[in-house]
Amino acid sequence: MRRTALVSLTLGFALFVALLIWQGAGSVMSTLAVAGWGLLPIAAFHLVPLVLDAAAIQVLVAKSCSLRRATLTRWVGESVNSLLPAGQIGGPIAMVRQMKQRGMAGREAAAAITVSTTLQAVAQIVFALLGLAVFGISAAHRPNDSLWLPMLLATALISALLYAFYVAQRRGLFGWAFRTLSKLSSKRDWSSLLDRADAVDEIVQRMYGQRRPVLASFALSLVGWIVGTVEVWLILQCIGHPVSWVDALLLESLGQAIRGAAFFVPGSLGVQEGGYLLLAPLVGLPADAGLALSLAKRTRELLLGVPGLVHLHFSERGWRRQRASQDSAPLSAATDSAPL
């Protein structure tokens, strides 16, 4: 896994550098520099979709997690996905750990993150289809409509994979995974882990059976994707290349679809830049503006992600110290009560 992530990161970084050199790094950076300090309020605005995504998690486990805790959890997950070489798997794992550290049962946390991540992916597909619809309606007025068929095929493929993932969840994904591992490594006792995996599958089934929370989670995720359009509109305003709301919607929906398709590349490095480079001409933007848009998003990821990773580091340290003190407490009590 680590080797695959390293290879993906290396290829993505190479693509990132190649695109900058191809388009002229100086031209791209000068375009980005026009935004200046305007990138700070844009980064702050991202807290709005962040809270919406957190609410999409919290609504599934309303009795076990507050919105504040869900927001911190979502913040950490996004930071890991954006800045660490763990693909899109590291974020959900970090979110499960964060929820567990804040008092939620591990099996419930795993189920909630699994279901909410699936629903967010479904919402992203709907958002991408919305962008494709906008693109299709306006294709007659665009200088280039060659991306229509590839984007539609990519969306269909991602939808098929997501449906397969959903079916696997409904049929006991975690239990099946651990039973497969137990067959591959028979020397280890997997019984306790199998019981936990079956418990997670049971909670996942229960969550999907609660229609109102599921629909609410999906709706909040979809609104979060749509609100992200404002970020694109603001960035392009700040760098001196304003576009309409429709064009911003097209850029954000299809850009996020391209980024989501490259989930195996850490941070979608290089792929996101290539996506905006392809999409920029569709809304009349020069190539350097498309790359500057992507770099502005990277800047926001750094401004919010680095503090998120710092928070993750100290929360992990605090949790380990707490567990160490709890483990040592029974030993101390036994020592104190032992006869002299």
From TrEMBL:
InterPro entries from the UniProt entry: L-PG_synthase/AglD
Keyword Membrane: yes
Location, primary (coarse class): membrane
Transmembrane stretches, start-end: 40-61, 109-135, 147-168, 214-236, 276-296
Keywords, sorted A to Z: Cell membrane, Membrane, Transmembrane, Transmembrane helix
Location of the protein in the cell: Cell membrane
Superkingdom classification of source: Bacteria
Membrane disposition: Multi-pass membrane protein
Keyword Transmembrane helix attributed: yes
Pfam families xref list: LPG_synthase_TM (PF03706)
GO cellular component: plasma membrane
PANTHER family in the cross-refs: UPF0104 MEMBRANE PROTEIN MJ1595
Protein name: Membrane protein
Protein species of origin: Pandoraea terrigena
